[in-house]
## 1
Amino acid sequence: MGADHTRPAPPTPPGVRRILIATVVPLFLATLVAALVLWPRDTREADAGTEPPRYHGTVTKVVTEPCPPTPEAPGGGPATGDGPCGTVTVRVEQGPDSGQQVETPVPAGPGAPEVAVGDEIILVELTDPADPSASAYNIAEHQRGEPLVWLVALFAAAIVAFGRWRGLAALAGLAASFAILLTFVLPGISAGRPPLLVAVVGAALIMFVVLYLTHGVTAQTSVAVLGTLGSLVLTGVLGTLATAATHLTGYGSEEATTLSMFQADVDLHGLLLAGIVIGSLGVLDDVTVTQAATVTELAHANPGLTRGQLYRSATRVGRAHIASTVNTIVLAYAGASLPVLLLLTADSRAATQILTSEFLAQEIVRSAVATLGLIAAVPLTTALAALVTTAGRRGGGRAGADAPTPAPRPAAGRTDALEALSTPRAGTTAPATPGGWPDRDRSTDAGW
């Protein structure tokens, strides 16, 4: 008979579990205390006094016509306006004019929506300052609520259909991530708290909730948590040093400059560091979970591997993972900044001046710091996982001392009997994993 690789991995020794609990629980409690201290209590509410009313409407008629000539034309003659020109009839669905038909001009200008009969749109009510009783409607944009709901429903259904209970847990973790960002990180930064500290605490809180909720309360998950937390702190330190060395101010984008006008007390330099930390978290937990699972599976497939062999084998997997992830990080930052990059290509300045400008320099720092933190996560998590996986072996994982004694080969006549004993009886079910998910994933069987 060959080796049975479908059996669950042996449970983590009690001593190792106690060490992990003594390490992870204080870190979790410290994160909770820091979150309570930094929690925003004096958040300012948005001033909606200057925002014009917005109502839903449905387009019932569109009439286009030639645009009138403009007085200033090349060559001195009249010229047709840019357009489009005409009127749009809209049935108002909300507000004081609900149910009535109103006429609005055809949207024109850069980025103006193109409307057709049956489109659901957003109307903006504009009031004449000289005569508050006189108002008119303009089309602002399309309603996007219904297609977004269908897209999110398809997204959730695909995750649950493929991942089943794990997919459902992943959706719960995603909801928890957004809840922490919207209730703690963003309000905390808006309230004037140190952005880098808020980002590190918020990312740690997200990490604890998402990893344990998605992968179960196991020793393997705890290793991934420790590796992620260490890499997050290192990313924050490297980001601080890199932004100081390159003299970045945080004013490298139009959005940051606009934010400084509305909220002058926000530290834009700290906000830049916070963005680096938050942006690194999603890739970091992917790498750390993969490395912890790789070590567990290697040790399960070949119990004779020493601690050093496990580390070297899993590190080779990590190198392949990092090689593809680095490209992902750079392309993600480039894709988010594509319009500005296109604008810079039309710049008449020298390439060296463009590359060292505030905007591009901050994107280079983002990519470089995130990648350095990612690279550090591989050896850190792999070493922790190899240490935890081999901690219960006799001889502490040294070569030759931890290799199990080969079991005697059963006689041919006893093979069927042994197979019968190892086969579950009819009507029995596989035990649930320590994380509570009813599946046979070996990566969660060696839990607390």
## 2
Amino acid sequence: MSHPDTTAADAQTGRGWPDPASLDVDSERLDALLGRAIVDAGATTSAGLVVLGMRLGLYEALAGGPLTTAELAARTGTAERYVREWARSQAAGGYLTHDPDGDRYGMAAEHALAFNPRGPLNLATMFRFAVRALTGLDRLEAAMRSGEGIGWHEQDDELVASVADFFRSGYAAHLVTEWIPALDGVHERLTAGARVADVGCGYGVTTILMAQAYPASAFEGYDYHDVSIERARRAAEAAGVSGRARFTVCAATEIPAGGYDLVCTFDALHDYGDPVGAARRIREALGGGGTWLLVEPAAGDRVQDNLHPVGRMFYAASTYMCVPNAVSQGGSAMGAQAGGRAVRAVLEEAGFTDVRLVASTPVNHVYQVRP
């Protein structure tokens, strides 16, 4: 798409840049701003290098002990001169250690934990999301000019996959061991055998985790995105739980009123164009004594409460994906940093009277919601 000349656009709107000579600039504040900008630009350009480090097996090779770049290249079947520059960039960013005496690069225990794809963090997934999100800038620009939405189904498949991978590690670390036990009586019902709906299930990550942990229960995953549902079906088959974890293409406002003992919604309510309508439908779908496990991004109620690194990341992700999807469905869009007060307002409007915050992580707030 064409990109209008900035100066011309400013002149048309009457909001031209002020003359630099007229500005009363605090040099210390300017230096601090430049420092932040350099860090951000370095992080932006380094994001792709983190992704390549995972794809090429460079981190995995270094997890076994420090290596020279020649040894690292030989072990991973890559070209040493490229690897040398990659390793220096990673060390400059603090993602690798560097021993100047032997010119060896390595991973401390903290690095090995954070980048392990089977670990509780899997930091590379954040960078994978960032890289894929940037490829959609032209489409996002057009949406910001027109006010039109961008549905989840219109996003790049790799971007959708990166979101599933980002949340996967946290769900694996907390869902079965902490979040479900925090709900009154739910662990016991699942152990004995219960009906569970996972609304907005995406790739079925959470559905499958629960099915593996509670073999006496039956699980049904719902999502309007047909590609995600197909991925979920394949994943359930691979995990050996397809007989108890079934997936259906269905919008949140249209799930069947099946008398569920537990309904779950993980990081999805704020994405809906009609969150109140979805919450009402979930209330209708719950059986007597049923519980809604609602997980939303961790956020404060005021903008100033969210002006920190985690809030910044979620505001950015919300701009790329969450708000565009809600707008595409005709909604006003809660956004990923709506906060607990806004979440409770949606739930109360939908008829829920018992809402408790039962767990939190730096990324998520976990609610037990009952009629």
